[in-house]
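EI: anyone free to look at a 1929-residue chain?
SC: sure, send it
EI:
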Amino acid sequence: MGNSYAGQLKSTRFEEVLHNSIEASLRSNTLVPRPIFSQLYLEAEQQLSSLEGGSRVDNEEEEEEGEGGLEPSSPPNAYQLPPPPEGCCTTDGFCQAGKDLRLVSISNEPIEVPAGFLLVGAKSPSLPDHLLVCAVDKRFLPDDNGHNALLGFSGNCVGCGKKGFCYFTEFSNHINLKLTTQPKKQKHLKYYLVRNAQGALTKGPLICWKGSEFRSRQNSNTNSASLFPLLESSGSLTAFPGEPAPGMNSGVPVGAQLAGTASDHPSVTTATSPAVFNGKDSPKHPQLAKNSLSVLPRPSALGILPNSGPPKKRHKGWSPESKSTTDGGFPQGAGNRAKHEGTSMPCVPQPGLVGPASATFPLVASGEPVSVPDNLLKICKAKPVIFKGHGNFPYLCGNLNDVVISPLLYTCYQNSQSLSRAYEQHGASTMQPISEETQLLLTVYYLVQLAADQVPLMEDLEQIFLRSWRESHLTEIRQYQQAPPQPFPPATSATAPVTSAQLPWLAGLAASSCNDSVHVIECAYSLAEGLSEMFRLLIEGKLSKTNYVVIICACRNAAIDSCIAVTGKYQARILSESLLSPAEYQREVHYELVTGKVDSLGAFFNSLCPEGDIDILLDKFHQENQGHVSSSLTASSAKKTAVLDASGAPVCTNSSTQNLDLGSFEKVDFLICIPPSEVTYQQTVFHVWHSGVLQELGLEKEPVTKQRAEQHVLKLDTEAQARFKAFLQNSFQNPHTLFVLIHDHAHWDLVSAVPNIYSQSDPSVGLVDRLLNCREVKEAPNIVTLHVTSFPYALQTQHTLISPYNEIHWPIAYSNGVDLYHESKKYFGLSEFIDSTLSGHSLPLLRYDSSFEAMVTALGKRFPRLHSAVIRTFVLVQHYAAAMMAVSGIPQMKNHTSVETLEITQNLLNSPKQCPCGHGLMVLLRVPCSPLAAVAYERLAHVRARLALEEHFEIILSHPSSGITVGNHFVKQLKMWQKIEDAEWRPQTYLELEGLPCILIFSGMDPHGESLPRSLRYCDLRLINSSCLARTSLEQELGLAAYFVSNDVPLEKGAKNEALESDGEKLSSTDEDEEAGTEGCFEAGSTSEKRGPVKRERSHSHDSASSSLSSKASGSVLYGESLAQPSGPPQGELSRSPPPGGPAEEGRPPGEIQRLRVSQGPMVISRHSPGPAPQPDSSLRTSRRNLQVPAAPSSQLSSSSSSSSGSSSTCTVPAANVLVLQASQCSMAKACRQPPIVFLPKLVYDMLMSTDSSGLPKSTSLLPSPSVMWTSSFRPLLSKMMTSTEQSLYYRQWTVPRPSHMDYGNRAEGRVDGFHPRRLLLSGPPQIGKTGAYLQFLSILSRMLIRLTEVDVYDEEEINTSLQEESDWRYLQLTDPWPDLELFQKMPFDYTIHDPKYEDASLICSHHQSIKIEDRGTSRKPEDLYVRRQTARMRLSKYAAYNTYHHCEQCHQYMGIHPHYQLYESTLHAFAFSYSMLGEEIQLHFIIPKSKEHHFVFSQPGGQLESMRLPLVTDKSHEHIKSPTFTPTTGRHEHGLFNLYHAMDGANHLHVLVVKEYEMAIYKKYWPNHIMLVLPSIFNSAGVGAAHFLIKELCYHNLELERNRQEELGVKPQDIWPFIVISDDSCVMWNASDVECAGERSSREFSWSERNVSLKHIMQHIEASPDITHYALIGMRKWSSKTRGREVQEPFSRCHVHDFLILNVDLTQNVQYNQNRFTCDDIDFNLRVHSAGLLLCRFNRFSVMKKQIAVGGHRSFHITSKVSDSSVAIVPSQYICAPDSKHTFLAAPAQLLLEKFLQYHSHRFFPLSLKNHGHPVLSVDCYLNLGPQISVCYVSSRPHSLNISCSDMTFSGLLLYLCDSFVGASFLKQFHFLKGATLCVICQDRNSLRQTVARLELEDEWQFRLRDEFQTANAKEDRPLFFLTGRHI
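SC: here you go
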């Protein structure tokens, strides 16, 4: 409860408060209990302290004395029954109201049960054979784990119906229990009651009151009989009466001590039956254990553990629904396992008897104690392991050191009985669990079929039970899966069950076939007899051939007691050792070494050698050969360079970025956290240093020093805390930097840092949790945590912080057609090792050493007290020593080593001799236990010294905390090979040992991600701790051998190519290592042909001694290594050594090396990928001098390779570009093509080679990690076809973390899903290249951030500049800030279009241009228009306009993200005005946010909208922009640049978005704080012309309204500001050009520069222009990087303006935009404005940048067929058709079809005009784009309009578009046309077409034919436009 260690409450005051709170809660009217109440649950440790009152140490027996059993040693406290009320019924079995409560009487009567109540059976001492029926609120009952029962009671009487009993005391009186002890619900409510198939109420399962199993037979005056010693030898805790436990406080109740000691073994502490610690024999309740789990009273979801207990104090909130599981607390001074837990679990079996450590436990029971014989271990040569099975277990006393008791089998049985609940909880039919008899029989069958060298696995047994249960209930399961649940399902006809009477006979029958390996003992009375019998047989030696003893006691009323003892020496040793935690294992080994227990082993070895002591032999050899042994390591070194691995990069676009506002970050920084391994640290620093990532992220300048790289790598050791604090401080101080916290090797140290779980004396415990999960990291918005691991299983639990969407499996299973790796490379991981071994390969890659195993087993029997790790290490070291001696010339020692060790040693010693450079191979000797590694090193070094082999090979002892120590001789060799000149250089990583002949003794309990060089040839894992099996620990050991091999050559001479091809067809086989379907990934890009899947069968035994090939190896040096490799390595891979300080790299900065690497095409990744950067190509060229190009064709391979025994013979290679190696036997060359050979313990080998029913190796079904546990044994197996994602989801469903796991408390933190938005997980097989992947990820992320701060803007030169007439440059002074009105009016108007977006538009002719205009080239294809426009990437300035993805602090209020501005806080206002041209009233709608209402005038607050406020011309305020800005937009709700906050530099401005009606909602959602002008629905399909038209008309109407309104206030009409801004939605930044004149003011020489300015600056400058109201239209240049000085020189131009217009709505009152236009409407409008005699002014010193936006705008118009099934593309020539034709009609506006047709096919109407720029087409009152090859001449028909002089021009065509009454016949007659010129008249309908022809008297000069009439390809309802063409006569 937070105030005690083991649950004891310290004060009675607390009990009173608790009592009162419960009472208050019960008496309250609310259904939901009060918070204090809901947190107080019955827990094991709380029960021990007698929470319901009563004495501190209670006499809590399981049953009352009246039920038989042993008498307690002191009388119970008397309990006085209160007198019953007068006149009430006191008959047993009846309530005080006289109603019958006995189950037998009312089982068939309907009983009303309120919601939330359950029927339970109460036991009355006076009616032992009856159950009394009660209705109890289920919140006060426990779940199936014995958890979650609320304190107190709430029940109803089912007899008289009385409700609301709040105290069990009161209730027990009412139902006449007549108790003699304190009434307690735990003691008297015994069974759930369930309805059977006939609907009758029957006794169901036992109510699992948790904690009853901890109640000990202890009285207040004695400590005897129940305190158990903690045994030091095995850590087993066994029942031993009469002696207090050492180290335990005898004042603490025993149950509490037990709970504490066992607390890390949840299978015991949470076992779900009171029978675990059965204090006494209870013959009256034989069903006690049997029914404990048969039915689940309150169902929980399949595979999800129900919640179990109150939270720790640190949790803020916690609900009974939250899923968690508890293991109990750890009392101070509790058992020595506090630091490492077992793998037993609630409602789940052990991962295996061979699984990680689990406590051995006292199972208190009835009857006489059984004495363990004194000399048991000595006689048996092993400690028997006794598994408690069903029923009661007797006391053991005597020599308890020599036995081990385990509860694992009991837990397995219990869990298997709960299988059927998964179905029952859904209301399916009641299915019986497997009976105890069947369970036991199946167990016997399983043990019988185990081989002599196999060890039983709990997972196997679980699967057997599951299959058996499924088969027996197949029908019901199918019903459950298909049909809805039935209330009373039909009774099923099951097969006849095994009875307890038949059981011993059937078990004996089964065991009779196994040659005594299983022995069955049947007992008559209790298990005690059987155990005594077994001990007797063991002492007498009669069980020497027996591995398992099954003891069955089936006498008592059909209930069985059972236990199984493992007596086989091999099995018992492995099982007992598997119960040790890693720390205990190391302690045990250390103890044996320190105390000299191992000396007997050494003496024994010496006695084996017939020639006497081995050391004497060695000394003799040393004296004989002193001075005669010369080093065979030659000093020559061929000039070969390494192509080191390039790192692959993940495309880590992850869903977490949606929770990150990446736009608010400017740069990326990172910190890589790694385990405390010096080699891993140096390796990671090297990667960071040489990857170029520091330069790319802008964190360092060139050249980067190693010290700078070290700043970004953090070793998680004792000094880490200070540096991590600095990192957090840095992240806090730099909120705009995104910090990526990379947690490499993330499966290491998942220990929780919660206080009191572990003693805090060791500061490194829980360090990862303390640092990476601290509140600062979790809450920092700028820290992203990336966990990187090859074994992610422990991070994939029900409580994980990482969303499944944030998992990246590397490499990704698809490569999008890109080869992921260099084509000659193939990853060789665990599944490939297994496949190659199973494929009948002549030399399997995975092997075990049978002679070594045999010797270990024999010695294990001889030295039973020594740990097997000690024995295995001494044997192996002895084998290596003997092999060295044998190879060195003491041949008789061959008999004292194994074939395998001899092969390794021969190849180690001979490999340098076979290479001219002296390259050798590496042997990895894995010794997890550091003290043993030191012993091995000393012994091997001694032998090497005596044999004078010090210069032949190195022996390196590695420990995670220390660096690498290599002798000077070998350092010189390495420096020579790697061309290193630095005198101080020493190798710091294993990769730098490339080519060094050495034995690397690799110690440390776990590898920490160290990469090994390619010269690794043998991976000797014979000493790994094979008894503690979890998937992670096994796979990380095997991951040391993971390798990249060349994919284009066979492995061995006799090998089939398939050996390297694991099933190519299955894209993603999730084997142990290939997490991401790597096989498919690699093979997809492989050039080798696909072969069929490899058959998984063994051609012969892979015990190497029985392999004829390798058994000869002892006689021939060449067999192991010289099975000639027919081909050389791929080009550039001859030497793989990393040259960190090599001259070649010194010559190039690392950044350049990085660039080289990127440019090399397909990535080359070696086994230690990603390694250092590859050397430059120049050094490769020099290396080819020593190599020959192959001349022999590949057919000569076999003959030439067979002769390659000497180092001088040349081996030819197939295929070009593959170099030939002079030294065919160089181990470096082989390494490229051959993965290492791996030696395993037999146990591990069998586990990998045997497959389960899913087709995967058995190792995959192991518990994934010791820090997690299964949620249920009712779980499917992993499937071979699962992808990595599916495997992750599997573990997320079926595993939960243990209490010591750092994720344990996650679900209680208040979030429903519990995922952290900024956590990522990168997983991939070992050595696949994850370091390179995450460094690449950092680069990608950095580029993304830069990309977010950059924008692509159009960067195009102005067009048609050569057509501009050379004007007199004297109009204006260069430095004038504003145009001079008088001078400006004299400037001619430049008709030419200069905007590059109109490159495809028709030229506009004017009399200024020379008549001869050169051809303008061909037009672009329409689809190229967007693609081919040139852009430049620009960094966003602080004055940029932004889209919806930008969120910064300053913008929040502007954008309406501030809580004050909610989406609904805007109002819709209609605004109507009449417009004569449309002939109707126009109604527009404004959406005005509350925050913007001050810009408008309303009739009253919230009333009718009257007008939009306009400022005065005379206003001089610098705080706001006078002109309202209107932005028409479509399809760009996300991408439109409507956030002008920064562009306006925070100035007050009015901005209105003009949107179509159907897009209103989406724009309002994205821009809640913007004013919207919603166009009428008739304009939904209109173009930009309609928007411009309505904006202008609205604003003129508003101007008049404002003039009227303000006139009343005394303001003159001409003083109202008449300008508006019409801006494109893609204007992103604005620039100003500063011009400086070189000389005096009149000089034309100048220099200029451009700078980014705010839109506010530009607008205020323009708005301040003198005489501004005389200008009709003002604009600015479009920015281009190619702008020439000439364009800036003239400060103002009178020409076309585009994109960003400042429009005077007053002057342009009578000039309208064409509302029908889609394209070129701005050119059309400019021409109209100019012809009306108005001024257009372009400020050339200002420019606007336009962003390239790929969506929306004019691209949102798609022309498609109206016929839905037509998928044919429509081309522009189909946009028109003959009237009344059968042409396919198109779904597009007629005007759009017209404009697009004329743009691409106008030459059909104007053939004479094509490229005839001297004779343009005359276009009256409009500008239509006729394509770039036709010029047009614009004239206005309006009276007094300005037109060019056309008297001297002859036109090649006439275009009349919707002409009005101003165009008359006389107007047209003033123009001259060429003979044959063409006319095109365009009208709204055929009728007006004819009227126009008649009105304009066209037939006088033009000839028309009937077939010259056309229409746009629209249906009649879409109102097509009609054309008529004719020829000039």
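EI: The chain has a mean pLDDT of 76.
SC: 👍
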